[in-house]
Amino acid sequence: MTTHDNNSTASTIPEKPTKTPPLAPVRVKIFFDWKRALIPVIIGLGMLLIPTPGGLEPRAWHMLALFVATIVAIIAKVMPMGAVCLVALTISGLFGLTPVVPGKGDVGMLSGFANSTIWLIGIAMLLSRAVIKTGLGRRVALFFISVFGKKMIGVAYGFALADLVLGPGIPSASARGGGIMYPIMQSVATAYGSEPGPSARKAGSFLAIAISQIDTIVCAMFLTAMAGNPIMASLAGDLGVHMSWTSWFVGAIVPGLVALIALPYFLYKIYPPEIKDSPEIAAFARGELKDMGPMSRAEKVLTADFVLLLLLWIVGDMAFGINATVSAFIGLAILMVTSIMTWEDIIKEKAAWNTIFWFAVLVMMAGALNTYGVVGWIAKGIARGVGGIGWHMGLVVLILVFFYTRYFFASAVAHISAMYAAFLATALALGAPPMLAAMSLAYTALLSMGLTQYSGGPGPALFGSGYNSTGRWWGVSFLCSIPSLLIWFVVGGAWFKVIGWW
């Protein structure tokens, strides 16, 4: 008699195959705004169709076409800046404008990544994350407001001192003005019932523009205060003018301090807040500091590291032969060894790595334009237009044009990349002293960020708070530009004479 094992029999019955659900249709999302992309493409191709001008070789003209298209794409915000630069880098290498293995007279496709100033600003951005992460930046700002905040003008000076202290180690106007000062400014304004709308003039309108103007001055005072500064140092170096951290600081210290004192007061007079006395603000700041408690170990180590970095940046190269970029690496290594910054913190800092990438590409392209003779060719053309008036008046004209053309740029880096090298080369062609021309134009590039709410730095955040209309922001900022330029022309010019720049 045969027996059957139900379990074994059942196990041999093939299972009915499960019906696989249909795959959802894959929709390809276009990464860029193709309508805006047409603008730089048409401009670039249009330049390529024009016969190469006399005095330039075809490679130089093609490089200029690619560079102009890249800047236009950045201005038009076709893609994120890093993505635009990646496309430009690829095209440059693909068509041999900048070969991967450069020969004699070539600029290497990846040469920008070997530029020490690029790594200086990138490492400084990593260091600035520690300032925000530990709360040290907020503590510094609250401390100065607690001391000077009994008057509304004192609140503005408190922000100025805080920005001045933080400026050397936070190479981002947006991080300082938008990430640290802006939230505190909002708390101060709200404490006095100043909200966007009818009550904006009580405090918020004045403080928002004050912080914007202050931040531009601080950006002009330190090589490491803004990402565009090392770009100008690199471009100037290509033209034979060496800018160090120390020379930048020494040149800016006198006119910068005068501007930090004069500009908030000037703004206070032409655009006064309705509330003049603010004793509650000093008390508010003291209360916030009390809530933060005593300085943590991380804040103390970071403060010591910050002081060490300042000393190394100021005298390290002269006294110890330590390059400014090496000093930045030392500062970062100390924070890693003391566990204030971890490797995970560093690799997650997208803003720093993004800056290093697009910075390297733009520096490479600008270097190629200079090496291939484009910058000199443009400079000769501009020099012919302003020739015959002497280098003194010629430099003044170049500075004013460079300053007010900022209205046409929504990116500090785009403005610098597009115009700085050509204007500096023109000034040199007119016979202007090299250091005077290079630094005057560099300071001008930073000060012009205060003209509009979109010019760069914390402007978008401060304007976005709603305390000022576009008309007010533009009008008041233009009025502030007049004493600002006068200070840097008169006080700065005299100081530059004292230190031997002309």
Major sheet attributes: none
Tell me the number of helical segments per DSSP (H or I, 4 or more residues long).
Answer: 22
| Residue share in β-strands | under 5%
Low-confidence stretches: 1-11
Helix proportion range: over 70%
Shape: globular
What is the total tally of β strands? 0
Round the Cα radius of gyration to an integer and report it. 27 Å
Distance between termini? 118 Å
Order of helices and strands: HHHHHHHHHHHHHHHHHHHHHH
Structural class by secondary-structure content: mainly alpha
Integer average pLDDT: 87
Task: Give a structural overview.
The structure is a single chain. The chain is mainly alpha-helical and 502 residues long. It is 70% helix and 0% strand. It has helices at residues 6-12, 34-49, 58-76, 81-94, 116-134, 136-148, 152-166, 173-191, 204-221, 228-238, 245-270, 279-292, 297-320, 324-337, 343-348, 350-371, 374-386, 390-404, 412-429, 434-447, 459-464, 470-498. The longest helix is centred in the C-terminal third of the chain and has 29 residues, at 470-498. It is globular. The N and C termini lie far apart (118 Å).
Summarize the structure.
The protein has 502 residues and is mostly helical.
Which labels suit this protein?
single chain, 502 residues, mainly alpha, 22 helices, globular
Q: What is the strand and helix layout of this fold?
A:
Layout: H1 6-12, H2 34-49, H3 58-76, H4 81-94, H5 116-134, H6 136-148, H7 152-166, H8 173-191, H9 204-221, H10 228-238, H11 245-270, H12 279-292, H13 297-320, H14 324-337, H15 343-348, H16 350-371, H17 374-386, H18 390-404, H19 412-429, H20 434-447, H21 459-464, H22 470-498
